[in-house]
């Protein structure tokens, strides 16, 4: 949709085709009349010929998330919100145990085979400040979940067991955080073990360019033990300090925008999704669109299984009321009515289909040109 052919561009700005091709040549671009012009050339050429152009995406009106962001811009975020912190690291390095220790819960003990197989979201309070945690699986089979975790995150905690050191999924987790542009704190866990060697972990990571603060670098390392509780306060304080520097804000008065981090279908409840509210307040009875599906919030359940009436920015919750199960990664946006919710979901479906089609059509044309 944002692509236009050279001859179409010439027609649109009412200039001879040869002039446009010549201008492109001067820019070092050999283009034929049927070639596509990318957005950047449209702008450069428009300047060259001194014609005003407005680039618009005909599908943009279908993009409900973009519309939401225009209506609730970040400049109007005025209220502090809790940081969303994702715990990542190699399998068995103690991610769930750390969270259990922080929350005083016993999830790790109940997991099948002692392996986390899904993403969980929990909220804790420390010194009157809330922190939302996302637990991710460390097993290599769950790369996509780690990537998704990193996407919704403000701060990542990379857990490394001090008796095991840096392992493949430690590196992978760091890569995800870096790719998502998320700052991270290293939690060196299991320091209660006699064979624990936290300095080895430090030097392994330092070699990868992750230099600890105490060695003159900029990465916070905290030694912890999920077993004894040592270092946990220190870790939480480090998280809160980092969050403070980031000045995370939202506007609770806006309609809700939330991200689905997981969904499943439960007997009697229908689709249930774990969401994290990114902005606005999600309320019971809110009509919403969520990717290709839509619905109305029926139940809101917090991480302790208690029912709630609303979810504030930065907070996680499980909600029901979906027409169909949404996909992890989908964005939920509250809208005025069920009718609008349904229409918006249908438009979004069309958006995805047309976007797909426009890609394939373009490829076919290019293939054709090669053949000629
Ligand atoms: P996955 O989610 O499957 O990747 O594992 P995980 O990183 O969540 O590890 P989990 O919390 O399930 O802990 C793995 C094992 O390490 C369990 O047997 C825990 O009891 C043990 N463990 C976790 N933290 C500590 C610790 O600080 N000290 C000791 N000694 N053992 C720990
Ligand atoms: Mg786990």
UniProtKB/TrEMBL annotation:
GO terms for cellular component: cytosol. The keyword Protein biosynthesis applies. GTP binds at residues 89-96, 135-139, 189-192. Residues 80-249 form the Tr-type G domain. GO terms for molecular function: GTP binding; GTPase activity; translation initiation factor activity. It is found in: Cytoplasm. Residues 83-231 are annotated as: G-domain. Its main location: cytoplasm. The keyword Protein biosynthesis applies. Belongs to the TRAFAC class translation factor GTPase superfamily. Classic translation factor GTPase family. IF-2 subfamily. One of the essential components for the initiation of protein synthesis. Protects formylmethionyl-tRNA from spontaneous hydrolysis and promotes its binding to the 30S ribosomal subunits. Also involved in the hydrolysis of GTP during the formation of the 70S ribosomal complex. This is Translation initiation factor IF-2.
């Amino acid at each position: 949709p944002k692509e236009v052919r050279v001859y179409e561009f010439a027609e649109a700005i009412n200039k001879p085709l040869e002039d446009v091709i010549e201008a492109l040549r001067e820019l070092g671009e050999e283009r034929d009349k049927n070639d596509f012009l990318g957005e950047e050339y449209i702008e450069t050429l428009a300047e060259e010929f001194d014609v005003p152009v407005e680039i618009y995406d005909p599908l943009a009106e279908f993009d409900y998330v973009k519309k939401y962001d225009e209506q609730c811009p970040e400049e109007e975020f005025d209220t502090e919100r809790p940081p969303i912190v994702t715990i990542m690291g190699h399998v068995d390095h103690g991610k769930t145990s750390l969270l259990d220790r922080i929350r005083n819960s016993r999830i790790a003990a109940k997991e099948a085979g002692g392996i986390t197989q899904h993403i969980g979201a929990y909220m804790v309070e420390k010194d009157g400040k809330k922190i939302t945690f996302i637990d991710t699986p460390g097993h290599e089979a769950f790369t996509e979940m780690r990537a998704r975790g990193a996407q919704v995150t403000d701060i990542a905690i990379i857990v490394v067991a001090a008796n095991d050191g840096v392992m493949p999924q430690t590196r992978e987790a760091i890569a995800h955080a870096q790719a998502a542009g998320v700052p991270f704190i290293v939690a060196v866990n299991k320091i209660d073990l006699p064979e624990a060697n936290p300095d080895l972990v430090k030097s392994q990571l330092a070699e990868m360019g992750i230099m600890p603060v105490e060695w003159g670098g900029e990465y916070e390392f905290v030694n912890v033990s999920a077993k004894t509780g040592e270092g946990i306060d220190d870790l939480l304080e480090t998280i809160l300090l980092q969050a403070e520097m980031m000045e995370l804000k939202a506007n609770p008065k806006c309609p809700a925008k939330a991200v689905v981090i997981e969904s499943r279908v439960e007997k009697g409840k229908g689709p249930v999704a774990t969401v994290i509210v990114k902005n606005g307040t999600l309320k019971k009875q809110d009509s919403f669109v969520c990717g290709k599906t839509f619905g109305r919030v029926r139940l809101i359940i917090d991480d302790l299984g208690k029912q709630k009436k609303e979810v504030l920015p930065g907070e996680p919750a499980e909600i029901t009321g979906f027409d169909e199960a949404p996909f992890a990664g989908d964005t939920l946006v509250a809208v005025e009515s069920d009718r609008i919710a349904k229409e918006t979901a249908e438009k979004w479906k069309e958006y995805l289909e047309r976007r797909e089609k426009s890609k394939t059509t373009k490829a076919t044309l290019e293939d054709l040109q090669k053949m000629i």
